[in-house]
Amino acid sequence: MRQRAKKALKPSGLLDLPFEVVVQVLAQLDNPFRLSLLSRTVREYLHSNYFAFVHVRLLHRSTARRWTCFWFSIRAPAEWQAEFAKHVLLPIRELGVDFSSCYRLAAIPPALGQLSNLTTLRLPSLPLAGPVPPQISTLIHLKTLDLSLNYLTGTLDVFMSLTSLRVVKLEKNQFDGPIPASIGNLIHLDELALSHNLLTGSLENCFAQLSRRVSLLYLDGNGFEGEISPSSLQEFTNLYHLFLNDNFLEGSLPCVSTMSRLRVLSLQNNKFSGCMDAVNWEHLAELAQLNLAQNSLSGRIPSSFGGLRRLEVVNLSSNLLEGPIPEEIGMLRNIESLNFSENRLSGRIPSALSNCTRLYKLNLSGNKLEGEIPSEIVKSLRNLQFLHLDRNCLVGPLPSGIRMLRRLKKLYLKGNRGMKGVCIPPEVVAKSSIWKLLRENGFI
Smallest Cα–Cα separation from 83: which of 31, 23, 16, 30? Predict the structure, then answer.
């Protein structure tokens, strides 16, 4: 029987043409929307290692519309990249990868620098690796840059000539070195996100040059060190978020009293010292989240905290704070999570905490608190899910109202010598969830 001839393989098409011919084909795409026709014609080989789907927005006619085209990967020949950028992608204003179908790029193609009309570049989580090509410095109209969650290396100098930038997101990469003084070139900057890189040095020069219009500043998770002088941040009155946590900063707390719009302040895991009274907390009326944990702050918790009526989350754990918990804490009607653990606080647990009815997490463990657990707290805080009072000097008996904490998931009362041998109140139903939690803590 005669064997059938093998079916001839399809020619790989456009990618196999001589480069001179390819240039002529691309040159015909004077209207960028003709790319869709080209895509249908050569889809079977354009959808390859050379290209990845992206969504782009074009500056075309009177309206900008979103459409799908192909973007080259680093595996495409350099000549291909240059010509494709020149003839097809030049009109693009916005460029971002479609995660559902993209090919993962290995590096940022240098030909990206030819997209002179680009105002938005979003390439997060691809992952991209290696240094940022210097050609990116030619994108002088760029307003939004997002290269976050990649493996990019090098210094930040390559971005300092992009003077139109308003939003810079470079977090979770491997950029190193200091923040250059030329950061002052970015006079329109609204958001700067450099979290979780390998950046080092002092922040004094950065704050001296940084645009005062910035509202979102994320510098956490790096290797910044040294002190922040009291005057360094006084002029940043537009700040909405300030993240300096997980660095090696030291000295007194930075002066944030002028930041009347501040909503989130995160300074934990540094080496800040001194008293909290150095800050005029009453001026931060919009503050919703405050994290000063894992520093060396001393003195008392300021009573002025009671004026921060918008506070939802407070974490002052692992410091050297002492004295009683101020009764004014009970004025925080919006507080949901309160953590004063691992300090040297003394006195009784203030019954005024019963006013904080939205509280779902209360952690006062590892202090020197004494007396009984106030019955007002267990009767009023019906939303409590996590209650940490272990390793203090509390005594029994347990308040009978503890049975009302029906939403409680975690309870820690061990390490209070005055509670040893205390009985579970008879009002607590045997085998109920709160009964089981009390049994786990050694109550009988």
Answer: 23
**pLDDT, position 330:** 94
pLDDT (0 to 100) of residue 185: 96
Asked if residues 69 and 88 have their Cβ atoms less than 8 Å apart, the reply is yes
Residue 20, both tokens: 């001179």
Identify the pLDDT of residue 7: 41
Rg (CA), the chain: 30
Give the integer Cα–Cα distance in Å for 444 and 439. Answer: 6
Distance separating alpha carbons of residues 94 and 434, to the nearest angstrom: 56
Q: Give tens-digit pLDDT for 287-331.
A: 999 999 999 999 999 999 989 999 999 999 999 999 999 999 999
Return the ∠ at Cα 284 (arms to 279 and 288), rounded to 5°: 115
Q: Give the separation between CA 168 and CA 109, rounded to whole angstroms.
A: 19
* 3-state SS, one letter per residue, for 167-182: EEECCCCEEEECCCHH
In terms of phi and psi (left: phi > 0; alpha: psi -120 to 50; beta: otherwise), the region of 335 is beta
Q: What CA–CA distance (Å, rounded) separates 127 from 148?
A: 9
pTM for the model: 0.84
CA distance 326 to 304: 9
**pLDDT the model gives residue 271:** 96
Q: For the chain, which residues score pLDDT lower than 70?
A: 1-106
Q: For 240-271, give one letter per residue: b (16+ CB within 10 A) or e.
A: bbbbbbbbebeebbbbbbebeebbbbbbbbbe
Q: What is the dihedral of CA 343, 347, 348, 354, to 10 degrees?
A: -60
| Predicted local confidence at residue 28, as pLDDT | 55
In the chain the first and final C-alpha atoms are separated, in Å, by 90
CB proximity list for 147: less than 8 A, separation 6 or greater: 108, 121, 123, 124, 128, 132, 169, 170, 173
Q: What is the pLDDT of residue 426?
A: 86
Beta strands (DSSP E) in 165-282 are: 167-169, 174-177, 191-193, 198-201, 216-218, 223-227, 241-243, 248-251, 264-266, 271-275
